Structure prediction request, 268 residues.
Amino acid sequence: MFPLPMLRSLEVDQASIAGGLDSMDSRYAVRYHLAFMKNTILRALNNIHTHALTLPRDDDPRLRAFFEYIVGVCDVIVLQIDTDKHLFRTPVIAGVALEELMGEGCVQDMRKVVKGANKLKELARKYAKRPERYESNEIIARLSFAGEFSARSWAQLHFVDGRRLASACSEEEMRHGLQGIIASFLEKSDAAFLVPFIHSHHDRKTSTYWPPISSEDRITVACLAKVHPRLWELAPFDVFTGRERGSQEAKTYPRAFTPASSADNSQY
Prediction:
């Protein structure tokens, strides 16, 4: 099952709009925002698997950081699943929810994933209290939900149809609805974990346009990264530079959904 393949997303050299996702019609961009966020989680699951196999049991400081990292990742998974429900089931367009426009598949049944993530989190917390009892094979066994998350994340994207959204709502309506969902997501999260997590788990080779960030935001990222510095030493990318620390992703991808133009953004 590991490493989990990444969902193919908008490539820098194929972005048809100079400003990237911020300038793209939000009705088409929503698919890529979802894919980029899901990929940060897939990388984190790969990362947990890799560290479970390689971290020495006698490296107490790194093990403690590892357990804390696992807890944070599990929280992000559960929050992302909850946010997906909110995004697609909250009436945002003339009293109509996006799920009604695109079909039930845009909200996948992630109950097994939530249950699995919570069990993994529980195990990591137990080891944080008694690191001498740590067994890496137990961590790996608790990652059994990862394949389900990967498959359902890919299935979800098939239902996020930019053309259907474009025929049902204005760009302004969609952008306003998305801004509200993103604000809610950030309010419910632990920013000191979530923000550095996103920046240290996003492959900037796939897009420099996500996450959208200003020069002021970069200062915020730097400050937040200092709250839990040991965690980001375990991350696949440097939180500040985006430099890859080591390849741990599958190199085969599902069929790409990289558009040549906005009009084709709903095609795979």
Observations:
- The chain has a mean pLDDT of 86.
- The chain has one domain: 12-264.
- The radius of gyration is 18 Å.
- Residues 22 and 212 are 7 Å apart (CA to CA).
